[in-house]
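seq as requested:
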Amino acid sequence: QVQLVESGGGLVQAGGSLRLSCAASGRTFTYYTIGWFRQAPGKEREFVARISRNGSQTSYADSMKGRFTISRDNAENTVHLQMNSLKPEDTAVYYCAAGTWSPRAADFRFWGQGTQVTVSS
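struct tokens:
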């Protein structure tokens, strides 16, 4: 069992940066790949990035490559998502989730409550 809590969302101008954090509780944090997903109003939840259990592998959606960086600190049970060069189309609720090495939301068993990111033009 893993409980996840996101933080760090907010309002930022286009071109700006935000750093999202996902704090996990529970002894099994290192059992799971951690993923970030996002959902904009009226749209389906989409994959953003994922990081393997020991942090050695990362993967990004094409539109995030070069702008977003995912990292994890297993000693602190935390995953971060550094988001640079933000665009208005990045506006969404961002969720972290724990699951298997997959870009599919269905493969992630535990979810946080989400944090709102709004990028103004």
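The chain has a mean pLDDT of 96.
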